[in-house]
Each structure stands twice: as C-alpha cells, then as structure tokens.
Design goal:
By secondary structure, this protein is mainly beta. The chain has one domain: CheA-289, Domain 4 (OB fold (Dihydrolipoamide Acetyltransferase, E2P), Beta Barrel). The chain has three helices and eleven strands; from the N terminus they run βββββαββββββαα. The chain has helices spanning 69-72, 145-148, 151-158; strands at residues 14-22, 25-30, 34-39, 53-59, 62-68, 85-91, 94-100, 102-110, 114-115, 129-135, 138-143. The strands form two sheets. The protein has a six-stranded mixed β-sheet with strand order 8-1-2-11-10-9. Strands 3-6-7-5-4 form a five-stranded mixed β-sheet. A hairpin with a 2-residue loop joins strand 10 (129-135) and strand 11. The longest helix has 8 residues, at 151-158. The radius of gyration is 16 Å and the shape is globular. The N and C termini lie far apart (49 Å). Pfam families: CheW. This is Chemotaxis protein CheW. One of its GO terms (biological process) is signal transduction. Residues 14-154 form the CheW-like domain.
Length: 159
C-alpha cells in the first residue's frame, strides 16, 4: 500500500455541504440537492405508508412526503421537537422533506477531504454514503440522497 490517502472520488472539486445531526451523529449532503430548511411542523399521517414516512405537509401549495431520515438510515426514529428541522430536498425531480434533529452548519470542503466508507462486512450496504469527512469536530457521514431514495421509491412516496 502506498502512503497516499485514498479518497472518495471528488479530487479537485470544492463541495458545498449542509451538515445536520441525527441523534449524536453528524451527516451531510450537497447543498445543490437542498431547496430550503424549515423549522419543525407537524405533518399529516398517511395510512399504510412505509415506516420511514411520517406523513405529508403542504409546502406552498404542494403536498410533499416527510421522511424520518434516522429511520431510513436504520437508526432509532427521531422524536421531533422545537429544535428539529425539515430539510427540503429534491431527489429524482421529486421534493421531499427530511426530518433531522438540527442543522449544524453549511460548509465548503475540498473533494480530497472526502474519504471512502470503509468495508465493515461483506453484507454491509454502504451505498447510502458518498464517503466520510474528518474535520476538527469529528467525522461527518456524506450521504447520497439519489442512491438512498431509488427513483421508483420516490415515485411511490408521491403516490
């Protein structure tokens, strides 16, 4: 093995990311996928919806699904409170709301700072993550919303 640091394939790029917390972990996504950040507001439950769908809300005349991102990532569901936020994102031309504990920061990072997700086990599915960003405050898991929400799945959320 050489002495060079293996990266996740963003070399030479400058990435604008939005960081947020779920429980005690930090995650981020590219700002280009984000439409807006809203304060927590209750949503309307939908019968027989997938377990990660909390419900729907009206966003300026458009009904959008609200997703419990922690549950989608295999974590304990988020219990929303006044510090929670809804990160409104566009994935596969569909607008969805992602419930997070709180938004931490908007950062600019160099692509070379994004390291690949290590192999944990053969059955470990790392497709949701673009990589890991190590900074002075800890580690940030860089999520890929397009892979997390398959195109067909997003269409079903909208139905």
């Amino acid at each position: 093995m050489t002495g060079t640091l293996k990266t996740a394939g963003f070399d030479g790029e400058t990435l604008e990311i939005i960081a947020f917390r779920l429980h005690d972990q930090e995650f981020c996504v590219k700002t280009t996928t984000i439409r807006e950040i809203r304060g927590w507001a209750p949503s309307t439950p939908i019968p027989h919806s997938p377990p990660e769908v909390i419900g729907v809300m009206n966003l300026r005349g458009t009904v959008i699904p609200i997703i419990d991102l922690a549950h989608k990532l295999g974590m304990k569901s988020t219990v929303a409170n006044e510090r929670s936020a809804i990160v409104v994102a566009e994935v596969h031309n569909m607008v969805i709301g992602l419930v997070v504990d709180r938004v931490s920061d908007i950062l600019t990072v160099q692509g070379s700072q994004v390291q690949p997700v290590p192999e944990v086990t053969a059955s470990f599915d790392k497709s949701f993550a673009e990589g890991i960003i190590a900074n002075e405050n800890g580690m940030i898991c860089f999520l890929n919303l397009a892979r997390m929400f398959k195109e067909r799945e997003v269409e079903e959320l909208a139905a």
